[in-house]
Specification:
globular; binds zinc ion; single chain; mainly alpha; 2 strands; two-stranded antiparallel sheet; about 270 residues
Length: about 270
C-alpha cells in the first residue's frame, strides 16, 4: 500500500495523455461498482438477488479494486456492522482516531485474519473462494493488462501519446489509490462528518461528498439503519449511482428482488 502511493509519483516521469485519463476514469467507475454492488450490497448484505455468473462478474470487479479478496472484505465488513463504533470495531474513528479508521487499521494484526464463521455461506461458492485464493495473481494480471494495453496503443496509435508505463501508472495505480481513499472515507469520514437522518446505535453519518465519490455509499447513516437495503440514497436528492446501476441490471434481467426499506418501497 505504501509502495502504491509512492508509485503514483512515477506519473511525473511517464506524463499523462487523454487516453490514459479516460482509461483511469473507466477503471475507477467499473471497480467502484464492483465494490459497492458486488462486495458490499450483494455478498455482504444480500440486498438483491443475482445469478452465479452475474455475482461472479460483480465480485471479480470488486476484487480488481485491490481492496482484498471477497471473503476477507466481507468478513471484516460484517464485523463492522456487528460491532459498529465499539472496541471490537477495527475501523471506528470513535475508538482509535480518524487516520487509524481510514487506513491505519490495515496494519493491525487482527486485520490480516478472515473470520470464516462470518462468511460461511460464501465458502460454499467455489468461484468466490477462487477469487480469494488467486487474488494476488489477479492483481498481478491486472497490472500486466494495463501495461499491455498502453504498449499496444503506443505501438498502433503513436499519436495517442501513451505508453505501457503511463497506462500502468494512471489506469491501475492512480485510479486504485483514488478508489482506496474514496472507500476508506466511508469508514472514516462517514463516522465523523455529515448528517444523521436516523437514530442508530453508532456514529454513522450521511455525507454527500463521499456518496459522490463512492457511487452512493456515503449515505452511510441510511445504510446502518437499513443494512439490507439495495438502495442507500433514500431521499430523491440523495443520488445513489450504484442503485441506479442495479436498476439498469434489473431491467435487463441480470439482477432481481432489490430489497428496500418499507417506507421507500411504498413511495
Ligand atoms: Zn459504518
Ligand atoms: Zn454494509
Amino acid at each position: 500500500m505504501v509502495g502504491a502511493h509512492l508509485a503514483c509519483l512515477a506519473a511525473l516521469e511517464t506524463g499523462v495523455s487523454a487516453i490514459a485519463l479516460k482509461v483511469a476514469g473507466i477503471a475507477y467507475l467499473l471497480r467502484a461498482f464492483g465494490v459497492t454492488a458486488g462486495y458490499h450490497r450483494l455478498l455482504a448484505h444480500a440486498a438483491f438477488k443475482a445469478g452465479r455468473p452475474t455475482q461472479f462478474v460483480l465480485s471479480l470487479l470488486g476484487a480488481l479494486a485491490t481492496q482484498g479478496g471477497p471473503l476477507w472484505w466481507v468478513s471484516h465488513h460484517r464485523n463492522h456492522h456487528r460491532y459498529t463504533d465499539s472496541r471490537q470495531d477495527l475501523h471506528s474513528p470513535r475508538q482509535r482516531g480518524f487516520w487509524y479508521s481510514h487506513i491505519g487499521w490495515m496494519w493491525d494484526q487482527a486485520s490480516f485474519e478472515t473470520a470464516a464463521t462470518n462468511v460461511k455461506e460464501l465458502y460454499r461458492l467455489p468461484e468466490i473462494k477462487a477469487l480469494q485464493r488467486y487474488y494476488p495473481l489477479l492483481i498481478l494480471a491486472q497490472a500486466l493488462g494495463f501495461y499491455g494495453l498502453g504498449a499496444l496503443l503506443a505501438y498502433h496509435f503513436p499519436d495517442s501519446g501513451t505508453s505501457g508505463a503511463q497506462m500502468l501508472v494512471w489506469g491501475f495505480i492512480i485510479s486504485t489509490v483514488c478508489l482506496w481513499h474514496a472507500t476508506f472515507m466511508v469508514n472514516s469520514v462517514c463516522h465523523v462528518w455529515g448528517k444523521r437522518s436516523y437514530t442508530t446505535d453508532d456514529a454513522s453519518t450521511n455525507n454527500p461528498l463521499v456518496a459522490f465519490l463512492t457511487l452512493g455509499e456515503g449515505w452511510h447513516n441510511n445504510h446502518h439503519k437499513f443494512a439490507y437495503s439495495a438502495r442507500h440514497g433514500l431521499e430523491w436528492w440523495q443520488i445513489d449511482l450504484t442503485y441506479l446501476g442495479l436498476r439498469c441490471l434489473e431491467t435487463v434481467g441480470l439482477v432481481a428482488d432489490l430489497r428496500l426499506p418499507r417506507k421507500v418501497a411504498a413511495t
